[in-house]
Amino acid sequence: MIHATALVDPAARIGANVRIGPYSIIGPQVEIGDGTEVGPHVVIKGHTRIGRDNRIFQFCSLGEVPQDKKYAGEDTRLEIGDRNTIREYCTLNLGTVQDAGVTRVGNDNWIMAYVHIAHDCQVGNRTTFANNAQLAGHVHIDDWAILGGYTGVHQFCRIGAHVMTAVGTVVLQDVPPYLMAAGNTAQPYGINSEGLKRRGFSADAITALKRAYRTLYKSGLMLDEARAKLVEDAKLQPDVQLLVDFLNISKRGIIR
Question: pLDDT exceeding 70 applies to what percent of the chain?
Answer without folding.
Answer: 100
